[in-house]
Design goal:
- The protein has 14 helices and 17 strands.
- By secondary structure, the chain is α+β, with helices and mostly antiparallel strands.
- Strands 10, 11, 12, 13, 14, 15, 16 and 17 form an eight-stranded antiparallel sheet that branches. Strands 5-6-9-7-8 form a five-stranded antiparallel sheet.
- A hairpin with a 5-residue loop joins strand 7 and strand 8.
- Helix 8 crosses helix 11 and helix 11 runs antiparallel to helix 12.
């Protein structure tokens, strides 16, 4: 890249423009998944929509690959590339709350921790994932599964509008009133259609919840999963808990002699009246002895960040996922066979409920198509030592292959790995062809292809 070209980009950008010659280049190119080691030509740390426009135009005009980085939690490493342009939105983290109208305007680089800190002050929130360091943008564009989805719908169901920079360098608003085809596609279609520089969300009155993690002996896991399967069908929608498997971390509420052992996990979340919370989860304690728990009233942001210490930046990541309509006995048997084999304390298996309010949205109302599925399973392999890569990846794949025959063909795009590109059509079922048409209109040359790509 010649100096005048780079100088021109720097003149147009208010934020930092970082190249290989800069001292902070290695820090700027680093992403959440340490398995990903890419060397972009330039990293643009945008501070406003104008910076994003300049970077998109620069990449398109020079034929460079373009990666967009929000919260940087992309497991496949879609937030970076080799010898291309990275737009890093992390400096754009503002959140403005309108408590009277129960809405929030959120910039594209904000995390759910940023969002929660702003909205909780007003006793409000919306569905926002399980880890607070996750980016608002990536989670929402892929759908947005979280603790509140049974009561409030997915994150994308609460999206009112989005400000988008498109591949041809336009700044457009997408909503039900403007560019409604783009608005439809953004709600579950991932980062295929442009760079969203701000989101407007509908908020709900959620301040404190009753819940937290509970660890059961492994021999209680069959009963726990069967109980969950039946209970969640018609559970009050204020209940947003889920089961899984977890190695006990070294935390004060866990007996020291049990730390490091695998357990059946249940994370309870009750968003109704706090005085009803204990009663709402008491039935869980009847399943079997609870070895350890951190359950009680707490601010919603506390629950939304409870797993943050287990997943710091710099781990190795490899994940797989499926949607599940029925948690059959055969599926439960596969979970019981593979779940306890977690490769590290950082790894997790969660079986999220996506019924309730999620089912009240038609499959073709947004790009997120699996509105009849009841569960979203994630097998999240996360571990610190690259020497364990082969063993840990094999555990994820074996687990996935054991559960896939008892699951839907498609899965949640936010949990997909790099080698899942052949599942993109299945991930969107009957919505795929419509997504292709929207892609052709807004990104006919596939500038935004570093994602679970919908090719025009």
């Amino acid at each position: 890249m010649s100096a005048p070209t780079l100088d021109t980009l720097r003149q147009r950008v208010r934020g930092e423009v970082i190249t290989r010659d800069d001292e902070n280049y290695d820090e700027a190119r680093r992403v959440y998944n340490a398995m990903i080691d890419r060397h972009p030509r330039v990293v643009v740390r945008a501070v406003n929509a104008g910076d994003v426009l300049a970077a998109v135009n620069f990449a398109r005009e020079h034929g460079f690959d373009l990666a967009v980085r929000g919260g940087s939690h992309s497991v496949p490493g879609f937030g970076t590339c080799d010898d291309g342009v990275v737009i890093d939105l992390l400096a754009m983290r503002g959140v403005r709350v309108d408590p009277r109208n129960r809405t929030a305007r959120v910039e594209g680089g904000a995390t759910w921790g940023d969002f929660n800190a702003a909205t909780h002050a007003f006793g409000l929130s919306t569905t926002g994932g399980i880890i607070s360091t996750t980016g608002v943008g990536g989670l929402t564009l892929g759908g947005g599964i979280g603790y509140l989805d049974r009561a409030a719908g997915l994150s994308c169901d609460n999206l009112i509008s989005a400000d988008v920079v498109t591949a041809d360098g336009r700044f457009v608003v997408a909503s039900e009133r403007e560019n409604d085809d783009l608005f439809w596609a953004l709600r579950g279609g991932g980062g295929n259609f442009g760079v969203v520089v701000s989101f407007e969300f509908r908020l709900h009155p959620v301040a404190d919840i009753y819940g937290g993690p509970m660890l059961f002996e492994l021999d209680a896991a069959p009963d726990l999963l069967r109980f969950y399967r039946e209970f969640i069908v018609d559970a009050p929608e204020q209940f947003g808990g889920f089961p899984g498997f977890q190695i006990a971390p070294p935390l004060p509420f866990i007996p020291e002699d049990r730390q490091g052992e695998p357990f059946a996990l249940f994370v309870a979340c009750w968003t109704g009246r706090l005085d009803e919370g204990e009663q709402a989860i008491n039935s869980l304690r009847e399943i079997g002895p609870v070895v350890a728990e951190l359950v009680g009233p707490m601010p919603y942001p506390a629950l939304n960040s409870v797993f943050d210490p287990l997943v710091p930046p710099g781990l190795q990541h490899y994940w797989k996922a499926n949607f599940v309509t029925e948690l059959t006995d055969e599926a439960i048997a596969a979970h019981l066979e593979h779940g306890p084999g977690l490769p590290a304390v950082n790894s997790a298996v969660h079986i999220y409920p996506i019924n309730g309010a999620c089912h009240r949205v038609a499959p073709d109302a947004t790009a997120f198509a699996y509105r009849e599925a009841n569960f979203a399973t994630v097998i999240a392999g996360m571990w610190p030592d690259p020497a364990d890569n082969d063993t840990a990846i094999r555990w994820v794949r074996d687990y996935y292959h054991a559960t896939a025959p008892h699951s839907e063909e498609g899965g949640y795009v936010n949990f997909m790995a790099t080698d899942d590109q052949d599942r993109v059509r299945a991930n969107y079922k009957g919505n795929f062809d419509r997504l292709v048409e929207v892609k052709k209109r807004y990104d006919p040359d596939n500038l935004f292809h570093l994602n679970q790509n919908i090719k025009p």
